[in-house]
Design brief:
By secondary structure, the protein is α+β, with helices and mostly antiparallel strands. The chain has 3 domains: 133 residues, DnaJ domain (Helix Hairpins), CATH 1.10.287.110; 52 residues, Urease metallochaperone UreE, N-terminal domain (HSP40/DNAj peptide-binding domain); 94 residues, Urease metallochaperone UreE, N-terminal domain (HSP40/DNAj peptide-binding domain, Sandwich), CATH 2.60.260.20. Helix content is 24%, strand content 28%. The chain has 7 helices and 14 strands. The strands form 5 sheets. Strands 9-10-14-13 form a 4-stranded mixed β-sheet. The protein has a 3-stranded mixed β-sheet with strand order 4-8-7. It has a two-stranded antiparallel sheet with strand order 2-3. A hairpin with a 6-residue loop joins strand 11 and strand 12. It starts with a helix and ends in a 5-residue tail after the last helix.
Length: 298
């Protein structure tokens, strides 16, 4: 039985075009054969590409919503010997990169105006790692691994390396991530980014956990928060609940290509004291009694 295309991309039927594209790009990068070496990686990559090919086209999406996979099979419910689109998906295009060969279908054997999530074909996702010319024309290049600090990855840096016995200087652009590749002369440098306990990175956004006492959460306070640009003051409003998220706009990672930055999110963790003095317990009991009179203090 064919997989449901919406489940394949992890979206709902109400997803807008940009949501569909975003979901595809994320999964296609995750399962790309050069990045994902698992047994099912290639299969998953083909599944998400097939799902996006249908759901990104309004006409095909409408037919899929009405007839399901039968809309694209011989004699399908969409009408006609090749489904509702006449020409069907008979055409094939493809290429080869090193040990990888690939094909992908095109409607009617032609070259349709199909948007592969911003790539010219499914395997142009490789541009995310290498950049440069067409995928099928690239030659396999020798790779070297380089470990860098988290701050060097997000802010950029210059590193001295030794390749084939020669001392070289390589520029690390701001915004690279773990697994990013940099073309350097006749080689490709694969980056390993050391984690930073202050930040959790999600694409170009950063997430930082901030712990505050429950009294401060109730009364509100100004805290000092770390950012990649240095510490800043942030106002925590009174009545802040556990796991409240505060957005710091444009405080995230610089975009690797183009301008702009992601955001940083502060997740507030409210700390409940484990050991209270008798006086503190008495104050809390008085607080509870007063709250009962008000019916609620939430």
């Amino acid at each position: 039985m064919e997989n449901d295309y919406y489940k394949t991309l992890g979206i709902t039927k109400s997803a807008a075009a940009d949501e569909i594209k975003k979901a595809y790009r994320k999964l296609a990068l995750q399962y790309h054969p050069d990045r994902n070496k698992t047994k099912d990686g290639d299969k998953k990559f083909k599944e998400v590409t097939a799902a996006y090919e249908v759901l990104s086209d309004p006409q095909k999406k409408q037919a899929y919503d009405q007839f399901g996979h039968q809309a694209f099979t011989q004699g399908g419910a969409g009408g006609g010997p090749q489904g509702p689109f006449g020409g069907g998906f008979g055409g094939q295009q493809g290429g080869q990169y090193g040990p990888f060969t690939y094909t992908y279908g095109t409607a009617g054997g032609g070259n349709p105006d199909f948007d592969f999530g911003g790539f010219s074909d499914p395997f142009d996702i490789f541009e995310q790692f290498f950049g440069g010319g067409g995928f099928s024309q690239r030659q396999r290049r020798q790779s070297y691994s380089l470990t860098i600090d988290f701050m060097d990855a997000v802010k950029g840096a210059t590193k001295k390396v030794t390749i084939d016995g020669k001392n070289q200087t390589i520029k690390i652009p701001a915004g690279v991530d773990n697994g990013s590749r940099i073309r350097f002369g006749d080689y490709d440098v694969v980056l390993n980014v050391s984690p930073d306990e202050r930040y959790r990175r999600e694409n170009y956004d950063l997430i930082t956990e901030i712990s505050i006492p429950f009294v401060n959460a109730a009364l509100g306070e100004t805290i000092t928060a770390p950012t990649i640009d240095g510490e800043i003051k942030v106002k925590v409003p009174q009545g802040t609940q556990p796991d409240t998220v505060i957005r710091l706009k444009n405080r995230g990672v610089p975009h690797l290509r183009g301008s702009g930055r992601g955001d940083q999110y502060l997740r507030i963790k409210v700390v409940i004291p484990k050991n209270l003095s008798n006086h503190q317990k008495k104050l809390l009991q008085e607080f509870e009694e007063e709250s009962k009179k008000k019916k609620t203090w939430f």
